[in-house]
Amino acid sequence: MIKAALFDLDGVVLDTERQYTNFWGGQMRRYHPEIPGLEHKIKGMTLDQVFDAYFYGQPERREAITHALDDFERTMTFSYIPGFEAFVAQLKNLDIRTAVVTSSNLPKMKSVYKKLPELPRHFDRILTSEDFARSKPHPDCYLRAAATFGAEPSACVGFEDSVNGLKAVRAAGMYAVALTTTNGRDVVQPLSDRVVDDFTQLNVNELLHAACCQP
């Protein structure tokens, strides 16, 4: 029996991935032009992990990017992925616990809450980068979310859009649903049990049955 539904934030709950791809694409072309497409490789990583991996020992660049990101997030638009609100309401009606599992930090979430003050009401828990030591593709964040609800990983469904996120869900031993908001079907299909464009393509009861009955 499925007990919990665990959602990544950007590109899954919120239609923001293209905005972040544009932001990080600009930063990486400026600071790391020798690594094409780096903005895609960092998806699912926390800001600290990005800095440690690509800006180690570069405090001035880290500070400049942090300020640019803060300014960018204050002007971002935050809207829900089509069908999300109705989908999560159906889960709650069935007593399925819900959580956000995001690599975003608390300062970023404050920007989200200012524009979408109702967002926390959709979830029983919101886990941010401050809640786990290792981020995606490590499964720690999803295992932490499952433990929060006293649920076995096999009793959870994880919703992701990034390669690192889907790897984390799979590594945690959960049923993986991929959204094509960031990557094409050819990219996410091998890492997922189900692929959809958005939540309007999901039937809650059918999904829970499929996830519960997976081999």
TrEMBL record:
<dbReference type="InterPro" id="IPR036412">
    <property type="entry name" value="HAD-like_sf"/>
</dbReference>
<dbReference type="GO" id="GO:0050308">
    <property type="term" value="F:sugar-phosphatase activity"/>
</dbReference>
<dbReference type="InterPro" id="IPR051806">
    <property type="entry name" value="HAD-like_SPP"/>
</dbReference>
<dbReference type="InterPro" id="IPR023214">
    <property type="entry name" value="HAD_sf"/>
</dbReference>
<dbReference type="InterPro" id="IPR023198">
    <property type="entry name" value="PGP-like_dom2"/>
</dbReference>
<keyword id="KW-0378">Hydrolase</keyword>
<protein>
    <submittedName>
        <fullName>HAD superfamily hydrolase (TIGR01509 family)</fullName>
    </submittedName>
</protein>
<dbReference type="Pfam" id="PF00702">
    <property type="entry name" value="Hydrolase"/>
</dbReference>
<dbReference type="InterPro" id="IPR006439">
    <property type="entry name" value="HAD-SF_hydro_IA"/>
</dbReference>
